[in-house]
Amino acid sequence: MDDIDGDGEADTLDPEGIIWMQGESDAGIEPIAGRYETNLKRLMDLIRSALREDDIPVDRLRQIS
């Protein structure tokens, strides 16, 4: 999809960062929780690669009240 806003012109995305909020429902499942950091790092590496932005910052939200 090249025309995101529907104005008839191709758009360019220039992301400034990634915001990640992880749920807690699987935090007590040891095999999953034990791999969390490795899996999250891999996910962020894949997103950075897809965006072709090796140094895009990531902010992990802990909790929204």
Please tell me about this protein's structure:
The chain has 65 residues and is an alpha+beta fold. The chain has a domain at 21-57. It has two helices and two strands. It has helices spanning 30-33, 36-51; strands spanning 18-21, 58-61. It is elongated, with a radius of gyration of 16 Å.
Using brief descriptors, characterize the structure shown.
two-stranded parallel sheet, 31% helix, 2 helices, alpha+beta, 65 residues
Write the layout of secondary structure elements.
Blueprint: E1 18-21, H1 30-33, H2 36-51, E2 58-61
Parallel strand pairs: 1-2
Q: Radius of gyration from the CA trace?
A: 16 Å
Following the backbone from N to C, one meets helices and strands in this order, namely EHHE
Query: How large is the share of residues in beta strands?
Result: 5-15%
Strand arrangement, major sheet: 1-2
Short précis:
Helix content is 31%, strand content 12%. By secondary structure, the protein is of the alpha+beta class.
